[in-house]
Please model this.
Amino acid sequence: MKKKIKLMLTACLVSGAAMMHGQTVMTTNGGAPVGDNQNSKTVGEYGSVLLEDIHLIEKLAAFDRERIPERVVHARGAGAFGYFETTADMSKYTRATLFSKKGKKTDLAVRFSTVIHGKGSPETARDPRGFAVKFYTEEGNYDIVGNNLPVFFIRDAIKFPDMVHSLKPSPETNKQDPNRFFDFFSHIPEATHMLTRVYSDYGIPQGYQYMNGSSVHGFKWVNAKGEVTYVKYTWVSKQGEKNLTAAQAQEQQGKDWQHATVSLRKDIANKQYPQWDLYVQMISPDKMHSFDFWPLDATKDWPEKLIPKVKIGTMTLNRNPVNYFEEVESIAFSPGSLVPGVEPSEDKLLQGRLFSYFDTQRHRVGPNFQQIRVNQPKKQPVNYNSDSWNSSRNSAFDNPDVNYQPSSKSKVTDKATYKLSETKLKNVTITQKKITKTNDFAQAGDFYRSLSKQDQDNLVSNLVGDLGQVTDKNIQKKMISYFYRADSDFGKRIAKALKFSMKDFR
Ligand code: HEM
Model:
């Protein structure tokens, strides 16, 4: 008995929590024990309530501030944790230690999401799915913030806010409306490829385990000699790709519209750990102009028959979050979280994202969002960025009197062996114009023709379901003309279903 009490006391001292009869005593945020969490302190047993009930005030104040702004896009999501095991030595192409040694294991966090609707929206929506991975490497956090589909709607970040506005509920009616987003897309022929994919059954994956992932953008891999290779990443699900038809999605929605979160958690809890293989495609800089599309145009896939995929590792998810807010809502991914050996490409969409994510996270999670546990790099940051809300920087790396650089009293150097790559430019004009090699329709047609007859039928019927709600015939015709240019059969089928005849297009 004595031994048991001694053990309990030791446990309390270690955890800092008081224990009574094997239970932990509740405290205020300041650590003082709470004697009653059921009854407010009152004037007599019938009230009024006293302002001096510090525990009550603290509890209500904490509750009043529970919500932070939800993500402006990708608000609904599910997270999980696990590791990446490298299966190929890619040091010839990148000095990223993550990809340099076979058998190397790196901890990681993942967040899967839908894009357009709010935090409590159904997981049965037709939408691209977010596929964001944070690797906690010894050289800092590296994020691949991708989607399940390998391309995107637009190729320039300047269009993104307008596109999202058109897809979100109307500012007037608060309802998502195909009249609005097809009005927008009828001006954006480059969206044809992505729309063809989103309206196929790939637009509603059966669950997060059953979808592939893509970086969408090309990035630059840089090796120890400073040589650059352009790369694009693909995650291939070992569970296989499985989607829901529109009818199956409707049925699922009636039963449980949080099915994707539930199924991911359940598989991990049952130790059926989901896995994905990571593949990379590589293009050397001198080959970038050798295709009939521009590889850094995010509306384009890198066809495997032209640019082979090389497997570089496997991801396993083996832990569910214990606290959703702390580990999933507060996690902050960014295409700008890069490590030595990976740099952004010139992709105009990616370049806008490099600003947008860190910027939104300073607003959404707070200026010190990187100090929250789930966002902390493995190695403690060493710099003199200072203060602001919730700062918990550890300055022990230096003389506490020094918060500037250079300094004769500082122990910190910025002379890392790694330098960012250099690109020589000749005859360059600073400009503001669309790329020349737009090739907006060919890959949409290739994708349409790669589908089975049944999948083509589903794509046409899914599209007609939404495009049929558009009341402006000119918008419908414009959209049909894009799908026709992708593949004449595809366009004709939509036209027929919407009761247009060919002479309507003359
Ligand atoms: C210029 C184009 C884009 C802009 C400005 C943009 C902006 C944003 C913003 C502001 C967020 C919320 C981040 C947060 O609150 O933490 C977000 C989330 C996200 N975006 Fe984008 N986005 C763009 C394009 C893309 C593309 C092309 C992809 C896929 C390759 C993508 C994938 C994601 C994912 C996966 C998330 C959710 C990350 C998470 O789970 O926390 N976005 N985006």
